[in-house]
Specification:
- Belongs to the RPAP2 family.
- The chain has a two-stranded parallel sheet.
- It starts with a strand and ends in a 30-residue tail after the last helix.
- The chain is an all-alpha fold and 151 residues long.
- It binds zinc ion (ZN).
- Zinc ion binds next to loops.
Length: 151
């Protein structure tokens, strides 16, 4: 099933406030991770989620998807046994074994690159530190308007 903006509207109910407490923010982050751990989403939703996701929250989505053998890129719906949560080898080995790094997390190099492209645009700020969360989606000056998703 492909998750879209309409599905997210249901999930965000009760969180439509300018600011969230740390507890609310954690709850919402967890719900987003749960939403995308088994299903893929539309490009539009991935853009919108940049308003709510930090880099580390996005990394958690990737990790959860990998556990279920889903390609780490949330746009993709490929499930493959080659995708698995490998024991993390040390950083230097990882650097020299980049091919193995992405091929155990993504269905193809293209999706690894697209996922990285998206991740790098995300803010490091925790969700509870963000303001104007209730601003209209895709309105002028909103975070998601500046996000590019490679298609
Ligand atoms: Zn993929």
């Amino acid at each position: 099933m492909t998750i879209g903006i309409e599905d997210f509207k249901k999930l965000i109910q009760g969180f439509e406030k300018p600011l969230l407490t740390p507890k609310e923010a954690n709850g919402l982050t967890y719900s987003i991770i749960e939403l995308l751990m088994k299903d893929n989403c539309t490009v539009e939703l991935l853009k919108l989620l940049s308003r709510y996701l930090s880099k580390s929250a996005y990394e958690n989505i990737i990790e959860e998807r990998i556990i279920g053998h889903w390609c780490g890129y949330p746009i993709c719906n490929i499930q493959n046994d080659k995708i698995r949560d490998e024991v993390k080898f040390n950083k230097i080995a990882e650097k020299f074994a980049l091919k193995s790094y992405y091929s155990t997390r993504y269905c193809c190099k293209d999706h690894y690159l697209k996922s990285e492209f998206y991740r790098r645009q995300l803010s490091e700020d925790a969700l509870f530190m963000r303001i104007e969360l209730d601003k209209q989606w895709f309105s002028e000056g909103s975070i998601e308007n500046d996000i590019r998703v490679l298609e």
